Amino acid sequence: MLFNSWNFFIFLIIIYIIYWSISNKRLKAQNSLLLIASYFFYACWDWRFLFLLVFSTFLDYITGLKIEQSTQKSSKKIWFWLSIGINLGFLGIFKYYNFFAENFAQLLTSVGLKVNVHLLNIVLPVGISFYTFHGLSYVIDIYKEKIKAEKNVVNYALFVSFFPLLVAGPIERATHLLPQIKAPRQFDYAKMVDGLRQILWGLFKKIVIADNCAEVANQIFTNPGQYNGSTLLLGAIFFTFQIYGDFSGYSDIALGTARLFGIELLKNFNFPYFSRDIAEFWRRWHISLSSWFKDYLYIPLGGSSGGTWMRIRNTFIIFLVSGFWHGANWTFIIWGGLNALFIIPSVITKSNRKNMGIVAEHRLFPNIKETIQLISTFLLTVFCWIFFRAESLSHAIMYIKNMLNRSLFSSPSILPIPLIMLLCIFVGIEWLGRRGNYAIERIDIIRPRFARWSFYYFILLIVFLFVSKGETFIYFQF
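Predicted structure:
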């Protein structure tokens, strides 16, 4: 059930009406409804994997209780590592087994040993990386005594499987989401309007921006040998906007949908392409994942408290792991490594937290220095995305080799002017709205009211014109 499908909106309307028809004094009934709706939502993808989600949920629920109830440290460790091992074991089998098996076989072949490995012909359960990280953070926080175990199984299960965030995040923390699940929620008209507005903008980013960019990017990436360098650069730029519109569009729909039910999810994107360096980009891109790795991997490894070598080592570790989290392919690992390489200079000079505020915060346009920083950071990001999009390392290398030659300065053979104009308008709206949580959050200040509603109807009309495509979301594969 895709967010950009009619089935989802019919489902959403039905659940929304029933949800607010339940008395505000019956919180248990509201949470039970959301849990049932979330399981139904997930079962629509593949009902067989619903059992895996339920098993993972109950495993971490029971583990949390056992860790808290254990009086001996050894007992706590046993339950802790049991949960970690099983969760990562499932993730490893479904997502990484074939990768390791194939690479192990290739390694043996390279030294003259021929082996036949058995590969698993299984489908990757949608959202497994996300709900696994939900459970892991919960168990780790209990083990470190940062939170108390949740006694109510419905509340915990809803924390893990709340349908707006279930398949592609944001990756929530128990400290943020569980208190909201346990607190009574009352209908708020302003929140409803704001939620619908963010859903509308998310749909625009996904259906109009991402899906149209995908058509051109896919055409160019499929046959990179047929195009000159400027066309290949254009294809990489279109993918750059595709993945942003696709993933941040999903996040906007998720946050807006949750707000309809009186729940605020973690902000996952903060206008990342308006960053002045790679460090700032990663504070603005997939924020929930970046903060997860910082809290549960980077800091336990020593963080930035050690010397220069430790900071460099830890930076490479989290980016390589982050790349591998995205997929069992060397392209993702190289993508992570490149981002680490580009961020290392600022880590060494301790300037990685230099750009913490909004670019041109009190000005309409950036100055010359900021403009150069924005363009250079964007181009580095575009280069990295080539590896993310490529099917293999050889594909990525061929793409880059064909792009970085004299033909880079020739006219592109594919130049979709209407799409380029649309992207310019999109970037302009995002730039003007960069001070908000999402681009059109503050559009309600536009006067007269007729102008504001004309904008809403215009966006809605464009979305309806393109909605028939129904492309899936990129991050569903992770």
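Summary: The chain is about 65% helix and 0% strand.
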